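Researcher: Let's continue the batch. This sequence belongs to Fibronectin type-III domain-containing protein, and it's 103 residues. Same format as the previous ones, please.
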Amino acid sequence: MIHSTLKFTVPTWTPTSLAAWNTSSTSILLSWQPLADWYYLHGILRGYLISYSRVDGLLSKENVSTSSSSLLLELTGLDEYVEYRLEVRAFTVKGSGPYAYVN
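Model: Same format as before. Here are the structure tokens for Fibronectin type-III domain-containing protein:
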């Protein structure tokens, strides 16, 4: 009899091809692609964690999560004509991996 145990951990790689476009003076459309190599996922993908904050640091970081099938998110209700830093991480049941970012 062969017995095998899998050890799941957090992802060790980032989503790729981040891109962001302003769709209005108060909204941004963010897109990304999944991890380039599923070897670095180390478990079952549960979704993506998106964090965003003003580059000037005046407001705290906000977090939004999406499903594992989502590769696009529109952030609305942002401050008018302000630059934001956007981060995307993949996550499993064990937690989230490193982030990729775009300003």
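Researcher: Any comment?
Model: The mean pLDDT is 91.
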